[in-house]
Amino acid sequence: MGAHAPATHTHIPGYSRARLTRIIAAGNVAACIIGLWTILFPTRLYALSPSLCVLLPLWALTLDMRTRGALGFEERRGRRYPLSLATIVVLPALALAVRAGTDLNFESYAPLIGASVLTALAICVLFWHFDPQLRGDLNQCATIAIFALAYSYGVLAFADVRLDLSPGRDTQTVVHHKRIHVSGGPKGSSVWYQVQVDPDASPASANWINIRPDLWDSFQRDDTVCVHLRTGVLGIPWYTVGHCAENHAKKSAKSAWRDCKTWHCVDCRRGPP
């Protein structure tokens, strides 16, 4: 995994310099679109955008290995290297970390932060070991450190939640309020979609709980909901707000009865469930 800035005379096995320049330029465009979309438009294609933020940096690192370290990770103001992978790895990683920080809830963040730091250190050691030229370039070291920390936090957080199949436990409560909280006022950089519940229902004793932006409209004030607590696939307990299974079943049954009544079904004489 080379991290040095490529020279113009460098021989790149299997690729022409012009072809790599076009590939990386396309990757930069994709990274900007995916990163900005993930941050600015989280209510659309939510399930897809974090996955792309995970896969795009992996693609960039695979490309770097296939070219045997001929690419770079340097990004300097006023100076641009056409074969630099900095944008492709850093921007999606930062977007993934932002979504993990604003959408997910953990009973304690200390284990997650500790695991992220250790994973980031392991990534930096791998870069340091496989490319001795990296040791003399502080700019690229900083780029890789930012990528490693943001990517580790985002990947570990989403993996702990999305891959968790534990049964957990549910605590029933009521939605008192809902809000879109922007840090720093209208011009803030982070946006949280939150619902307010009873503090006793939250494992962290916090009455405001983050929820996925694409699910925010499904919660209304005075709705009966459940706070789902899970152990996490990495052993980091997490929780979220969702509709209780019983209430969801009742709503589905009532909706089916209304549809049945519209079509004058015989079973509708029994009345709503």
Major beta sheet, strand line-up: 1-7-6-2
Helix content: 40-55%
Cα distance spanning the termini: 62 Å
Helix and strand sequence: HHHEHHEEEEEEH
Main β-sheet: number of strands, strand sense, barrel status? Answer: 4 strands, antiparallel
What is the strand content? 5-15%
Helix count from the secondary structure assignment: 6
Instruction: Tell me the domain tally.
Output: 2
DSSP strand count:
7
Indicate the overall shape.
elongated
The secondary structure category is: alpha+beta
| Unreliably modeled segments | 2-9, 248-259
What do the pLDDT scores average to? Answer: 82
| Quaternary structure classification | single chain
**Over all CA atoms, what is the radius of gyration?**
24 Å
Can you put this structure into words, describing what you see?
With 273 residues, the protein is of the alpha+beta class. It folds into 2 domains: 146 residues, no CATH class; 99 residues. 45% of the residues lie in helices and 13% in strands. The protein has 6 helices and 7 strands. A hairpin with a 7-residue loop joins strand 6 and strand 7. Helix 1 packs antiparallel against helix 2, helix 3 packs parallel to helix 5 and helix 4 crosses helix 5.
